[in-house]
Design brief:
The protein is mainly alpha-helical. Helices cover 49% and strands 4% of the residues. It has a single domain, classed as Transferase(Phosphotransferase), domain 1 (Orthogonal Bundle), CATH 1.10.510. The protein is built from seven helices and two strands; from the N terminus they run αββαααααα. It has a two-stranded antiparallel ribbon. Helix 1 runs antiparallel to helix 7 and helix 2 (54-69) runs antiparallel to helix 6 (111-127). The longest helix has 17 residues, at 111-127.
């Protein structure tokens, strides 16, 4: 839910204001949780103009990687710092066995949760594509996360009384 709240906030900055704004400093310490446990973006330095919104998409992908792995962008040990998170993640997420080991051990991974986490991992990888034009926009990100949080279920047709 936190990731979806943040995605919606960035989508709003990019799409729904009078002008398109770029956060440019999207990182975990700029995500605040309210008393209702809903995420809010702290915005200090919004930009308009020539800089692409794909910068925020990349940063959001990194945040997703941090959420999935429990690992920081910059490691706290020398071993973790030897490989940057994005590079390490992109090498890891494609192999199911390696990926399962890379997921934050505090997450309870049943098969359904693993499937959702795998979808978020794929989304994170797309967000961090090396070429900005290959990254999704925040509306696409919101769509993927919205589906995971509240999937649309087809209900059985109601029978009419005869």
């Amino acid at each position: 839910m936190i990731a979806l709240d943040v995605a919606r906030g960035v989508e709003y900055l990019h799409c729904f204001g009078h002008q398109s704004f770029i956060h440019r400093d999207l990182k975990p310490c700029n995500i605040l949780l309210g008393d209702d446990m809903r995420a809010r973006l702290q915005t200090l330095d919004l930009l308009m103009g020539e800089v692409s919104t794909k910068i925020d998409v990349y940063s959001f992908g990194v945040i997703l990687m941090e959420l999935i792995t429990g690992r920081r962008t910059r490691g706290i040990t020398l071993e973790e710092e030897s490989v940057p998170l994005v590079k390490w993640f992109l090498q890891t997420y494609k192999d199911e066995v390696t990926f399962r080991k890379a997921v934050d051990p505090t997450l309870d991974l049943d098969e359904e949760t693993l499937a959702c986490v795998s979808t978020v991992a794929e989304l994170a990888a797309h967000c961090c594509a090396s070429k900005p034009h290959k990254r999704p926009n925040m509306s696409q990100v919101v769509n993927v996360l919205s589906y995971l949080v509240d999937p649309w279920n087809v209900s059985k047709p109601h029978k009419r009384p005869t």
